[in-house]
Design a protein that fits this description.
Layout lengths: L8 H17 L3 E8 L10 E8 L2 E8 L12 E5 L3 E6 L2 E6 L3 E4 L2 H22 L7 H16 L14
Antiparallel strand pairs: 1-2, 2-3, 4-5, 5-6, 6-7
Length: about 170
């Protein structure tokens, strides 16, 4: 299924990352995108770098499904640099630096299961009780708009010299 998608990495994977970055940083716009395909087994983009801006800040979302020697299961890395501290996530370790220093070891498999169950539980509770959903449809449309901006801003193929690397 994934291999047949024309919109692979940004539309199926990075949409979730963009949603989190928007939640953390607020409204964003796409300033630049480099995306392409190196693996002939997929139709859509398998690597992408998205530069986002908003409210005097910049964010870079960089992802690749074709890193030689990387584990088959992708691992997220995250770095948030602020004026008073930083938060980094590398694999299962979250580090906070600044006014508070902390190292937290995460069970990502358990957190994923719990978040999935929590989202489904929240959704069914709201349907049953009529309560407001935590994330409204308009907010999701703003994330989808970023995805559309990213695809519209992609660098033309003839300007992608890295695609020719082995």
């Amino acid at each position: 299924f994934i291999a047949s998608l024309e919109r692979l990495l940004i539309g199926e994977v990075l949409i979730h990352h963009l949603d989190v970055v928007r939640w953390l940083l607020g409204p964003l716009t796409v300033a630049a995108v480099h995306a392409g395909r190196r693996c002939e087994a997929v139709r859509g983009e398998d690597h992408a770098q998205l530069m986002l801006t908003g409210a005097g800040l910049a964010a870079l979302v960089d992802a690749s499904l074709v890193v030689p020697g990387a584990p088959a299961q992708p691992v997220d890395a995250f770095e948030l640099l602020g004026t008073h501290g930083a938060a980094t996530l590398e694999g299962r370790v979250l580090r906070l630096a600044g006014r508070r220093e902390e190292r937290i070891e995460l069970d990502l498999d358990d957190a994923y299961r719990a978040s999935y169950a929590g989202a489904i539980g929240h959704f069914t509770d709201c349907l049953r009780t009529g309560a407001t959903f935590e994330t409204d449809p308009q907010d999701n449309l703003r994330t989808l708009a970023l995805v559309e901006e990213a695809y519209a801003a992609r660098v033309p193929k003839h300007l992608r010299p890295l695609d020719s690397l082995p």
